[in-house]
Amino acid sequence: MPEGVLSVAADPKDVYVWNLVIAPNTDPYKGFFKLRVAIHPEYPFKPPKIFFETPIYHMNVDPKTNQACLHTLQADTWKPSTQMVSVLRSLFYFLSYPQPERSVQPDLSALFLKDPTGYLKAAADFTKEKASTKPE
């Protein structure tokens, strides 16, 4: 498992759902986050979906569904040879390097482009408010 993945457990009611706890070690997301990975029944031919159960301030996370919109998990860019460990590594990259051109929250990408320091401060403040300070 990539560094920062603290636990992975299959949902006892659904083998296609994994529950994760991650602890990014980079600003502005230092904290503990719960995630849910929904693995498509046709995996590896269809990509999994990652949802933040812990709210996160990130321009590439859909605010309605909390789905992480990683480029590598889009249907048109997904490769069946991609392993789940690579998906998790790309998640940590995604946290460190937001993609304003793929933003699902235009107000956050506008802030990031206009004032990157302000964006990072807002994300850090949000993380302090919403993320856990200890693994659960």
TrEMBL record:
<dbReference type="Pfam" id="PF00179">
    <property type="entry name" value="UQ_con"/>
</dbReference>
<dbReference type="GO" id="GO:0032446">
    <property type="term" value="P:protein modification by small protein conjugation"/>
</dbReference>
<feature type="domain" description="UBC core">
    <location>
        <begin position="1"/>
        <end position="132"/>
    </location>
</feature>
<dbReference type="InterPro" id="IPR000608">
    <property type="entry name" value="UBC"/>
</dbReference>
<dbReference type="InterPro" id="IPR016135">
    <property type="entry name" value="UBQ-conjugating_enzyme/RWD"/>
</dbReference>
<protein>
    <submittedName>
        <fullName>UBIQUITIN_CONJUGAT_2 domain-containing protein</fullName>
    </submittedName>
</protein>
<dbReference type="InterPro" id="IPR050113">
    <property type="entry name" value="Ub_conjugating_enzyme"/>
</dbReference>
